[in-house]
């Protein structure tokens, strides 16, 4: 009897403790951390990351692989380890609250707090702080030094000296990390470390005592060498080869205000005293000049220098007065790019450069690889290859307006002499070069086929013709996409291609294919994990790490594949989603994240065996104090007979005998994200799942299967039976169901409420109520016409309004708004670059005309969704008030009762609750 009483007491106590868990509120958004900029040291002993709390201040942490805290610092950002894993370098910013107070005090920008550079020695635990640093660099593949530039306000200077800054250059310090010794360089315009050689190059302005020009500094020698000198010159482009043995730069030596800049290209090689000019306006190809915007690079073997040529700019007559200039837009029906697209791309067009090469070991021979007629080229074998792959979409750009994708013609360009040979025409889909440059390869979406093209003999081989290596679930009136490729094996011997589940190995010349995995039988998708970011080939000598995803239960995991024996060993699998593993460069230590709805994606450490997964970070220990939620997979049959899945999120203290209000939130297909963690955040367009479940809501996210031509009906056929199947379970309050979605989700909600009264309240963000007017709209962020979306992609109509007028009308909620009985909250912003905001206005004014309960939110100056934190927080508060009123009987807020008059905008938000229910 005593044991029974003790057990009863313990159970009662645990229930009391559980009941005492806190409920999430909007203020709690600000105490939740996210993990940013995680990195692992090269030796694999340390992991560094920053915790960003509520988008306020960051807290940098360094931990060992057992999860022990090694070092922490408030306000630490952008940390990186040195190549020798001896030091951690990071930036310290001022307190965000201090910044806000200074802004309130109208403090000038130059008087605002500056960043501090921090250097932490991992062995000695010594921390060095250097204040007022504007930027820093460390070498990529060697160690021992760091270079940083001081802010102009940090440097004391005499009256006779010029103030450091953008025009004169900054004071730059080269610091020996081990000894602490420092070299100071004044008035540095730009600088760069060689990736592998212990060399730094830099440019001094004409304010420097040493003399203006370009310098190379071999640290082992100790004396900088001036390789170029010129007063008042500008250097828009500069680069140093990996070894440090070559330097190239573009120089503008003209001190006049000429509108056409006479840029010149110079090179220097080790052993030369001075850089030599290799291209200028007289030696450049006809109709081209040296570009100030084209990036400079060297081939891996450093025998070739790649740079950009540009066409001369179109000049305005500077003698014209403003009132004499005619500004008119002339839109032409058959020009390749729509005028609105041209406008969006003006800046890029002005900076457009055309790839060219200087053969440094062949008398600086110049070969142009890209031209205005053939504007896109890809180099092979890290620039070492004899051929480049060039393409143009110009003949097909006009039809891209309504097709949404571009065809391209491809050509092989001889890097030695510029000779161009056609390879293949009108390919829909990107074609690339194999790592060694022996093949062009890609996926032609128009015929759903992977293919290779042997550059040496010009033969094309269709690898997957007639086989299903394309999206098996494609439900858009568009060519199905591919599942992708893992890459190439050593020496371009084989191409690895994915189908829905498996990895296949193809011979690029014979086209013979071999399936390497057996995932289809288990509905298990295998994908190759690239652990070394610099690896160009997939080894057939070492084991491969493969990620796994089970389509049926959504479990994530990892397997090891032995390419010699073909055996597969499942290393880890479970009800989690795993982030991409990243391996230390000099060991087999791996860091990755693991998450579920209940588990925050903390950083974990392991090795290639995955036998011991150790949690390293603990970003949000406070989560255990709150009533959270659980996620599960649900299944049902759509009204048109399709088997569907969805996510059901229940409160942590769920009681199957109670009736819960439910919010339905959906887009297209989301059930694969069952084990994604959803922290309480002020989202820009969707409900916060953990926030609502904590407050006693159930969340349902159903997958939608689409029938081409009938997207609205498809949403109805998929979503409504999913809801009714849950009502039949007995724990959903059928009289208190809401629905929320944004953009495509907002459209589907607008359609659903014209067909059903099952929802008591609905929030529809950035909706399209009128497909006819939307078809003729512009996506203002890109300038693209919206036509392709309706004919071929997401809107799924499958043709034009004159081909299928009935489809456009039937799928447009605007023609059935009188059938709506559901109160609506609409959010659509006046700078929306995806969905023209007049669509939201059309929706609202029609509801207003019919006096249907509705409210419209427009966050001024915001795009497709509110980005500013104060606006996102405001939207989340209003949406919660809206649903709490209709689904829980909470009082109305002032903004729902009487609105917020224009005179009060930005002053009174109307968030106070009234007595009205």
Automatic annotation (TrEMBL):
SUPFAM superfamilies: alpha/beta-Hydrolases, DPP6 N-terminal domain-like. Residues 712-889 form the Peptidase S9 prolyl oligopeptidase catalytic domain. Keywords: Hydrolase, Signal. Residues 1-19 form the signal peptide. This is Prolyl oligopeptidase family serine peptidase. It comes from Algoriphagus sediminis.
């Amino acid at each position: 009897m005593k044991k029974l009483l003790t057990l009863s007491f313990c159970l009662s106590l645990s229930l009391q403790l559980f009941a005492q868990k806190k409920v999430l509120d909007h203020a709690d958004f600000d105490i939740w951390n996210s993990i940013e900029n995680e990195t692992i040291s090269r030796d694999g002993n340390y992991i560094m990351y920053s915790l960003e709390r509520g988008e306020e201040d960051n807290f940098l942490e360094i931990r060992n692989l057992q999860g022990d805290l090694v070092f922490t610092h408030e306000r630490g950002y952008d940390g990186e380890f040195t190549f020798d894993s001896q030091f951690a370098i990071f930036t310290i910013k001022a307190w965000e609250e201090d910044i806000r107070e200074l802004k309130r005090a109208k403090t000038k920008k130059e008087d605002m707090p500056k960043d501090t550079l921090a250097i932490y020695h991992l062995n000695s635990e010594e921390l060095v702080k250097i204040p007022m640093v504007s930027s820093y660099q460390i070498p990529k593949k060697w160690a021992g030094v760091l270079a940083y530039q001081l802010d102009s306000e940090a440097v004391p200077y005499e009256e006779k000296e010029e103030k450091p800054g953008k025009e004169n250059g900054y004071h730059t310090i080269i610091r020996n990390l081990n000894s602490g010794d420092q070299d100071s360089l004044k008035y540095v315009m730009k600088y760069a470390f060689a990736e592998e050689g212990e060399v730094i190059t830099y440019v001094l302005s004409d304010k420097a005592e040493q003399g203006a020009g370009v310098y190379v500094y071999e640290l082992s020698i100790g004396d900088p060498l001036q390789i170029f000198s010129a007063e008042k010159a500008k250097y828009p482009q500069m680069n140093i080869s990996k070894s440090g043995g070559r330097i190239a730069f573009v120089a503008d030596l003209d001190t006049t205000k000429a509108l056409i800049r006479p840029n010149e290209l110079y090179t220097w090689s080790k052993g030369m005293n001075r850089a030599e000019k290799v291209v200028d306006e007289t030696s450049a190809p006809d109709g081209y000049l040296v570009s100030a915007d084209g990036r400079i690079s060297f081939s891996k073997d450093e025998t070739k220098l790649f740079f950009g040529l540009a066409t001369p700019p179109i000049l305005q007559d500077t003698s014209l007065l403003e009132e004499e200039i005619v500004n008119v837009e002339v839109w032409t029906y058959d020009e390749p790019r729509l005028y609105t697209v041209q406008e969006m791309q003006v800046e890029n067009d002005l900076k457009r450069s055309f790839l060219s090469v200087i053969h440094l070991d062949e008398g600086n021979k110049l070969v142009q690889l890209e031209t205005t007629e053939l504007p896109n080229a890809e180099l092979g074998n890290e620039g070492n290859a004899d051929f480049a792959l060039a393409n143009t979409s110009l003949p097909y750009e006009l039809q891209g307006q309504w097709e949404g994708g571009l065809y391209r013609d491809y050509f092989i360009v001889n890097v030695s002499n510029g000779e161009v040979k056609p390879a293949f025409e009108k390919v829909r889909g990107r074609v690339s070069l194999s790592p060694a440059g022996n093949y062009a390869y890609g996926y032609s979406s128009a015929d759903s086929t992977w293919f290779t093209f042997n550059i040496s003999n010009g033969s094309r081989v269709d690898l997957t013709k007639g086989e299903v290596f394309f999206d098996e679930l494609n439900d858009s009136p568009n060519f199905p996409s591919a599942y992708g490729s893992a890459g190439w094996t050593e020496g371009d011997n084989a191409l690895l291609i994915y189908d829905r589940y498996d990895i296949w190995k193809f011979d690029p010349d014979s086209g013979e294919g071999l399936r390497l995995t057996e995932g289809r039988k288990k509905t298990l998708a295998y994908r190759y994990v690239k652990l070394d970011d610099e690896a160009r080939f997939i080894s057939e000598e070492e084991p491969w790490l493969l990620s796994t995803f089970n389509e049926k239960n959504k479990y994530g995991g990892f397997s090891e594949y032995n390419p010699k024996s073909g055996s597969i060993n499942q290393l880890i699998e479970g009800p989690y989603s795993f982030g991409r593993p990243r391996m230390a460069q000099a060991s087999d230590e791996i860091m990755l994240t693991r998450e579920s709805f209940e588990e925050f994606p903390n950083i974990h450490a392991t090795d290639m065996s995955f036998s011991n997964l150790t949690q390293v970070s603990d970003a949000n220990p406070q989560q255990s104090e709150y009533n959270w939620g659980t996620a599960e997979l649900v299944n049902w049959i759509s009204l048109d007979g399709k088997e569907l899945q969805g996510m059901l999120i229940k409160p942590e203290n769920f009681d199957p005998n109670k009736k819960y209000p439910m919010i339905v939130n959906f887009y297209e297909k989301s059930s694969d994200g069952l084990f994604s963690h959803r922290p309480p955040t002020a989202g820009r367009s969707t409900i916060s799942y953990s926030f609502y479940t904590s407050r006693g809501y159930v969340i349902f996210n159903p997958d939608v299967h689409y029938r081409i031509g009938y997207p609205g009906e498809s949403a109805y056929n998929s979503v409504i039976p999913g809801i009714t199947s849950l009502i039949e379970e007995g724990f959903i309050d059928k009289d208190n169901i809401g629905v929320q979605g944004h953009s495509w989700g907002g459209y589907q909600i607008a359609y659903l409420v014209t067909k059903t009264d099952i929802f008591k309240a609905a929030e529809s963000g950035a909706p399209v109520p009128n497909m006819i007017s939307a078809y003729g709209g512009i996506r203002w962020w890109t300038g693209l016409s919206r036509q392709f979306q309706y004919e071929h992609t997401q809107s799924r109509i499958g043709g034009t309004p004159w081909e299928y007028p009935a489809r456009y009308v039937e799928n447009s909620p605007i023609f059935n708004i009188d059938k709506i009985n559901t109160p609506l909250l609409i959010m659509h912003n006046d700078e929306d670059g995806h969905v023209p905001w007049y669509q939201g206005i059309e929706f609202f004014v029609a509801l207003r005309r019919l006096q249907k309960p509705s409210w419209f939110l427009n966050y001024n100056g915001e795009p497709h969704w509110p980005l500013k934190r104060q606006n996102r927080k405001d939207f989340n508060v209003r949406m919660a008030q809206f649903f709490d009123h209709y689904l829980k009987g909470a009082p109305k807020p002032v903004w729902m009762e009487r609105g917020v008059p224009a005179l009060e905008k930005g002053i009174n938000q109307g968030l106070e609750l009234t007595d009205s229910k």
